[in-house]
From TrEMBL:
Annotated keywords: Cell membrane, Membrane, Transmembrane, Transmembrane helix
Pfam families, A to Z: UPF0060
Lineage, opening ranks: Bacteria, Bacillati, Actinomycetota, Actinomycetes, Micrococcales
Chain coiled-coil ranges: none
Lipid bilayer topology: Multi-pass membrane protein
Listed name of the protein: YnfA family protein
Length: 115
């Protein structure tokens, strides 16, 4: 059940952070209205709260693992929302980032790790 919680929280965090950044991008770069930037700020704030709900108590570890999710999620967002066409290198880089995130998430805690 903890694994499901971790995955759901990472997915929600990705949605909030990537969506929030995209909304600000739309306001600033695409001139689609500053109200989108305000929604983006709210979404980015929500991201911070969602990330804080992760069961691991180590901020650095949670954010480092989330980095891999962010890489893959950003590419997926670009494909679905913006029609972005990734290269093979985008996919490879995303896979490497997700493997790295997986290693961080399943690694034994510092208390259980051998010295």
């Amino acid at each position: 059940m903890v694994t499901v919680r971790i995955v759901v929280l990472f997915a929600l965090a990705a949605l909030a952070e990537i969506g929030g950044a995209w909304l600000i991008w739309q306001a600033v770069r695409e001139n689609r209205g500053w109200w989108l930037a305000l929604l983006g700020i709210v979404a980015l704030g929500a991201y911070g709260f969602v990330a804080a709900l992760q069961p691991d108590a180590n901020f650095g570890r949670v954010l480092a693992a989330y980095g891999g999710v962010f890489v893959a999620g950003s590419l997926a967002w670009g494909i679905v929302v913006d029609g972005f066409r990734p290269t093979v290198w985008d996919y490879v880089g995303s896979a490497v980032a997700l493997v790295g995130a997986g290693i961080i998430v399943v690694a034994p805690s510092a208390a259980a790790a051998p010295e």
